[in-house]
């Protein structure tokens, strides 16, 4: 029996989260300045190109204003909300990461009415000695930053070799970006869930991209997201806040919701889910 990820959040909370995410996606700032050059501005954006556009806008602002610029929270959350679609395309293996990521982005977005900028968040939590407290906005921002970096590293690995499988790309990306900050239990559960990742071809199909178009959009995101990630890190280090604290929330969720993190059970569940998913997508391709 596959793990019931939907029980992690109450029904009303799931509905509210989904509605807010869809709303931010629809109004996200994906339009570019009139001076920007594009091959075909009339072409409908794919999910991947929308993400790349949003982060290029943020990155352009950072480059023009410098790292001392006080990045506003609302446009940052608008861009980050689009990344949740990429987590969703990775299937059940990253379902928990998707739910966590969306939840934290929504928390930050709700706070934008009170805290206008990312700096304001850190200043508030530093004053209240709550930077590393569960549920604090600074902790949520750190979690979102890890998600952005995970996708960036996954894309880099995905493009490094033509025959690199998504499992290899994702495993290496997780080991480099998130694993150093996670407990053994989290790392073990993530490793067990890697068997449920789609194939390289399935991922491209889900993203509605070809090898060529995916490479172009992924490289755009890689280049545009790095300055944002470095900016967030500087918010912490400039205040003498270490970046190496472990994230215990996974275990807290497990204890509260009885989330199955037993590696063998999770591996078996993911394998069954992965097999049925592959068979369904293969049938869809053969029907075409």
TrEMBL record:
GO terms for molecular function: ceramide 1-phosphate binding; ceramide 1-phosphate transfer activity. Residues 10-31 are annotated as: Disordered. Keywords: Lipid transport, Transport. The keyword Nucleus does not apply. GO terms for cellular component: cytosol; membrane. Residues 72-209 form the Glycolipid transfer protein domain. Pfam families: GLTP. InterPro entries: GLTP_sf (IPR036497), Glycolipid_transfer_prot_dom (IPR014830). It comes from the Eukaryota. The keyword Disulfide bond does not apply. Belongs to the GLTP family. This is ACD11 homolog. It comes from Olea europaea subsp. europaea.
């Amino acid at each position: 029996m596959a793990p019931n990820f939907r029980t992690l959040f109450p029904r009303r909370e799931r509905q509210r989260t989904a509605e807010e995410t869809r709303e931010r996606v629809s109004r996200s700032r994906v339009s570019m300045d009139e001076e920007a050059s594009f091959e075909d501005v009339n072409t409908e954006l794919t999910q991947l190109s929308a993400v790349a556009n949003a982060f290029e806008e943020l990155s352009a602002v950072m480059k023009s204003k410098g790292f001392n610029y006080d990045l506003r929270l609302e446009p940052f959350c608008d861009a980050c909300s689009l990344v949740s679609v990429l987590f969703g395309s990775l299937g059940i293996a990253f379902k928990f990461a998707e739910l966590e990521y969306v939840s934290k982005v929504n928390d930050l977005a709700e706070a934008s009415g009170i805290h206008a900028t990312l700096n304001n968040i850190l200043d508030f939590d530093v004053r209240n000695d709550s930077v590393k407290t569960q549920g604090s906005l600074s902790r949520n921002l750190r979690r979102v930053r890890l998600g952005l970096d995970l996708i960036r590293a996954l894309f880099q690995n995905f493009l490094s070799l033509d025959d690199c499988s998504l499992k290899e790309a994702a495993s290496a990306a997780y080991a480099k970006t998130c694993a150093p900050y996670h407990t053994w239990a989290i790392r073990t559960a993530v490793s067990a869930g890697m068997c449920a990742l789609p194939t390289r071809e399935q991922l491209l199909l889900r993203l509605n991209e070809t090898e060529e178009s995916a490479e172009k959009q992924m490289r755009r995101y890689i280049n545009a997201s790095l300055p944002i990630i470095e900016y967030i890190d500087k918010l912490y280090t400039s205040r003498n806040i270490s970046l190496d604290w472990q994230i215990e929330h996974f275990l807290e969720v497990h204890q509260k919701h009885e989330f199955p993190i037993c590696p063998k059970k999770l591996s078996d569940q993911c394998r069954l889910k992965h097999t049925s998913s592959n068979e369904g997508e293969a049938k869809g391709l053969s029907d075409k």
